[in-house]
Amino acid sequence: METLLDILSELHPDVDFSKEQNLVERGILGSFDIVMLVTRIEEEFDTVIPARLITPDTFRSAEALYSVIQSLEDND
User: Fold this and answer.
1) What is the 3 state secondary structure string of the chain?
2) Which tens digit of pLDDT belongs to each residue from 33-71?
3) What pLDDT is recorded for position 74?
4) pLDDT at site 3
5) CATH homologous superfamily for the domain 2-74
6) Rounded Cα–Cα distance for residues 26 and 17 (Å)
7) Nearest Cα to 8, choosing from 76, 64, 72?
8) Phi-psi region at 19: left, alpha or beta (left = phi > 0; alpha = psi -120 to 50)
9) Which whole number is the average pLDDT over 71-76?
10) How many CB atoms lie within 10 A of CB 37?
11) 13 φ/ψ angles, rounded to the nearest 5 degrees
12) CA-CA distance, 32 to 29, in Å (whole number)?
């Protein structure tokens, strides 16, 4: 989780991603941010996020995103 929080903080250092629960809804993460995140996550965690999982719900919080990452790693 710490690696993911570091990646998120690189995008928006002023946001407390450990507490924020509405990243997309509040406009904290936009489409460009999500593209950047997917790329960084795929590189850092050596996984692929399928297009079907690139939804606002997946990116609503760091916890939600980390849960998706863990499920992808478990399926490898």
Assistant:
1) CHHHHHHHHHHCCCCCCCCCCCCCCCCCCCHHHHHHHHHHHHHHHCCCCCHHHCCCCCCCCHHHHHHHHHHHHHCC
2) 999 999 999 999 999 999 999 999 999 999 999 999 999
3) 85
4) 96
5) ACP-like (1.10.1200.10)
6) 13
7) 64
8) alpha
9) 84
10) 22
11) -65, -20
12) 8
Please report, for the chain, the start and end positions of each structural domain, with discontinuous segments joined by +. Answer: 2-74
Q: What per-residue confidence (pLDDT) applies to 75?
A: 79
What are the φ/ψ torsions at residue 71 (nearest 5 degrees)?
A: -65, -35
User: Both tokens of residue 32?
Assistant: 């460009």
Main-chain phi, psi angles of 10, to 5 degrees: -65, -35
- Would you say 65 and 58 are in contact if contact means Cβ atoms under 8 Å apart? yes
Q: Which residues contact 18 (CB under 8 A, 6 or more apart)?
A: 5, 62
AA identity, residue 59: F
